Automatic annotation (TrEMBL):
Any one GO molecular function term: monooxygenase activity
Gene3D superfamilies tied to this protein: 3.30.9.100, FAD/NAD(P)-binding domain
Pfam families: Trp_halogenase (PF04820)
Similarity comment: Belongs to the flavin-dependent halogenase family. Bacterial tryptophan halogenase subfamily.
Coiled coil regions, renumbered to chain: none
Name recorded for this polypeptide: FADH2-dependent halogenase
Gene assigned in the entry: halo
InterPro entries: FAD/NAD-bd_sf, Flavin-dep_Halogenase_NPB, Flavin_halogenase
SUPFAM superfamilies: FAD/NAD(P)-binding domain (SSF51905)
Highest taxon, organism lineage: Bacteria
Species: Catenulispora rubra
Amino acid sequence: FPRYQIGESLIPAFMRPMEELGLTERMDARGFERKYGGTLVWGNEQIPWVFSFIEGGHSHAFHTRRADLDTLILDRARELGAHIVEDATVKEPIEEDGRVVGVRFQVRGTDTQNTVRAKLVVDASGQARLISRRYSEVTWHPELRNVAVWSYFDNCERLPDEEYTNILIEGLNEGWYWDIP
């Protein structure tokens, strides 16, 4: 940790917890690019539709490199007193009275399982869904079994003027794409 992930284009609602954690200035200092809205090209007419984040109450969000964002949040958690365990694998949830109250984990390279308890346990295992798989069956919607392809491009032309940092989402006959500057 941090691990490589494709970049992250944050939504404005993400800014409130970042402000509460005192991280917005650090995000600027790291050079995360501010974005102020988005541009959609969708439907039969293919006429661009532009939206501004300020209409929803926050003026901006950020485009980030995911590993940099993860490091920023993890470092702040340490500063605020969180006990961080890295290079570990969660083995199973600990359940009491029908709710998850902790997890058993193993640090890589050891044979010992450790236990940690918390008032709130969040399954942040992503698509692995470690805890949720144990308590519910994963049911895929047949029309949502899609494939995503991503890449980075250099020297691409951006949208003009006020749309310069906008995400661009465009619908095509066989799918859609999302362009993050």
